[in-house]
Write a structure and sequence with these properties.
Blueprint: H1 2-8, H2 12-23, H3 28-36, E1 44-49, H4 56-69, E2 74-80, E3 106-112, H5 123-133, E4 138-142, H6 153-156, E5 159-164, H7 171-174, E6 185-188, H8 196-203, E7 210-212, H9 221-240, E8 248-255, H10 259-266, E9 276-280, E10 285-292, E11 295-302, H11 308-316, E12 319-327, H12 330-339, E13 349-350, E14 356-360, E15 370-374
Parallel strand pairs: 1-4, 1-5, 2-3, 2-4, 5-6, 6-7, 8-11, 12-15
Antiparallel strand pairs: 8-12, 9-10, 10-11, 13-14, 14-15
């Protein structure tokens, strides 16, 4: 995809165009995200959240300045309330972080919540993928500041920074079940005001680092960045401790007698766009890929009567042929599966799309043919591995 290639080459205009496509949920955005997925996983994603008036925007501005001093490229998503008239962000990015305009190392995007619960729109996760793939070292998500229910950010980022201000006092106790419990780091901003010590005492019970800042003066920003780095070093180990936590569904392979007939439902009734249509001669199969969010539906039609898919349909009829998962630490996971006695159909191999994959026999996967794909490289719609059969 030309737009994806331009993004990977550092084209700022392409990045801006892609962000607009994603926020507007344009049909072509799904295929774009699929093309970029293999190039993610390097950016440090930080969430900045907290109640209104805590000084989040100023804090982000100073943090970006500190990152630029270290020559780190940054993308900032400033999530704002939705305009009832335009449907866009009430606070535009033009009034934020004016000192960074003209700096190619800083990309700033304002986007609206669009009524999403938890303060984040559906586009945020996809924009993180976009900015990560574009080569940004750090991606910052600054949330709208709706209060204690604003917790969705913790699911999208590696480190969540909760910004509070003196004067909350015992009110901290009232919100501990929501916003407080997602914090990886607490920031007491405006720490030169009365009540900072009292707030710090309340926060220590959460067993989370507490950093004091006066963002307007640039005080405490270096300490905050140091705390973020320390927290981010811990986050991957904690995340990896949960098996399968980072796995994602790459595609669902569906065997059909006729792709054209199947498209009467998937395309014409459900409104899914066809990303690619190809014939894989080696597997004697016609393939159509329909992006769905960050995943895909793969329609598989036999091109000859003796093909794998033809035999599958002859035995079981049309239906789900396999499920494909993208997984991190592919080689390590495969060795663990072998050690556990899981039945693999073959040794890991390279598919036509260039990625490494392996199939797991249905007897070990609850009756479903399961394909595991190495997450580091993007799968192709022409990958012959998708039609492997036990």
């Amino acid at each position: 995809m030309e737009l994806a290639a331009r993004i990977l080459n550092g084209d700022i205009r392409a990045l801006a165009r892609a962000a607009t496509l994603i926020e507007n949920r344009a049909p072509e955005s799904a295929g774009l995200l699929q093309s970029l997925a293999a190039h993610t996983g390097k950016a440090l994603v930080i969430g900045i959240t907290g109640p209104p008036g805590a000084g989040k925007s100023t804090l982000v501005d100073r943090l970006v300045a500190a990152l630029r001093k270290e020559n780190k490229s940054v993308a900032v998503m400033a999530v704002d309330p939705t305009s009832p008239y335009s449907g866009g962000a009430i606070l535009g990015d033009r009034i934020r972080m004016q000192s960074h305009w003209g700096d190619a190392g800083v990309f700033i995007r304002s986007l609206a919540t669009r009524g999403a619960r938890g303060g984040l729109s559906q586009a945020v996760k996809d924009l993180i993928t976009l900015f990560d793939a574009s080569g940004r070292d750090v991606v910052i998500v600054e949330t709208v500041g709706v209060g204690q229910d604003e917790v969705d950010v913790a699911r999208q980022v590696r480190v969540t920074v909760v910004v509070l201000v003196p004067g909350l006092g015992d009110d901290v106790q009232a919100i501990k079940a929501g916003l407080m419990e997602i914090a990886g780091i607490f920031v007491i901003n405006k720490a030169d005001l009365p009540g900072a010590d009292e707030l710090a005492l309340h926060l220590h019970e959460f067993d989370v680092p507490v950093v004091r800042t006066v963002a307007t003066e640039g005080q405490g920003i270096d300490e905050l960045w140091a705390a973020i780095r320390t927290a981010s070093e811990k986050a991957p180990r904690d995340f990896a401790a949960e098996p399968g936590a980072a796995a994602t569904i790459d595609h669902l392979g569906i065997a059909v007698n006729s792709i054209d007939q199947a498209l009467a439902f998937y395309r014409d009734r459900l409104g899914l766009a066809v990303g690619l249509r190809e014939t894989v001669e080696s597997e004697k199969v016609h393939v159509a890929m329909l992006p769905v969010g960050g995943s895909r539906v793969e329609l598989l039609e036999p091109s000859e009567n003796d093909s794998v898919i033809a035999k599958f349909i002859g035995k079981r009829g049309e239906g789900l042929h396999h499920i494909a998962l993208r997984v991190p630490d592919f080689a390590e996971l495969v060795e663990k599966l072998k050690a556990a006695g899981v039945r693999l159909l073959h040794e890991p191999r390279t598919g036509a799309g260039g990625h490494t994959y392996v199939f797991i026999h249905p007897s070990s996967a609850g009756g479903v043919l399961l394909e595991l794909i190495e997450a580091q490289r993007a799968p192709s719609a022409t990958d012959g591995s998708s039609v492997l059969r036990p």
